[in-house]
Amino acid sequence: MDGFHITVMDNFFDEEVLTKLQNHLPYINYAARLNIIDNINHIWFSAEGEEWVSKIMKDKSEKLLNKKFKVNFCSYTMLATVEPVVHCDHSKKCDYQIIVYVKGNTNLHKGTGFYLNDELNTHIGFAENRAVLWHANTYHSPLNWASDDKSKRYSVICQLKELDD
């Protein structure tokens, strides 16, 4: 796939699920040990996502893209201000990725940046309950490094493998 295709959807989770996650994510134990995915060292702290959240992420992603997926992994993430780490996660286990911003300060620079030809091309700003879904061959990085706001952001991420029909 040349270039990139990014799907953005606000109000991804219903209000009850969002509230449950907003109340839960700041209080779980995050670790750096889950950060290395297919030999790429990611820059957040994470905890394994629960099966019911993984199911919601998969089901909604399937509807958004009209494709069938298997979840490679689902994680809760906590990210603070960092240096940019531009990478792509395309692998035998991952064709698509989705992030849902759950809790944090609304800010253009607290979201995700997408890159073409080694240059930042597209900003997707952070807004609570915003989902961003993209093909895993797309280079991207959290944008926290560009923000003067040093607060944490909490998200749910999934890597999805496309299934044959």
Characterise this structure.
The structure is a single chain. Helices cover 15% and strands 42% of the residues. The protein contains 2 helices and 11 strands. It has helices at 15-24, 51-65; strands at 6-9, 36-37, 40-41, 45-48, 69-79, 96-103, 107-116, 119-126, 130-135, 139-142, 153-162. The strands form 3 sheets. The chain has a 6-stranded antiparallel β-sheet with strand order 1-9-6-11-5-4. A 3-stranded antiparallel β-sheet has the order 8-7-10, with no helix packed on it. The protein has a two-stranded antiparallel ribbon with strand order 2-3. Strand 7 (107-116) and strand 8 form a beta hairpin. The longest helix has 15 residues, at 51-65. The radius of gyration is 15 Å and the shape is globular.
Quaternary organisation of the protein chains: single chain
Structural class: alpha+beta
Fraction of residues in helix: 10-25%
Could you say which overall geometry the principal axes of the C-alpha atoms support?
globular
SS element count, helices: 2
Q: First CA to last CA: what distance?
A: 20 Å
Q: What value does the average pLDDT take?
A: 87
Strand/helix succession: EHEEEHEEEEEEE
Radius of gyration: 15 Å
Beta content: 35-45%
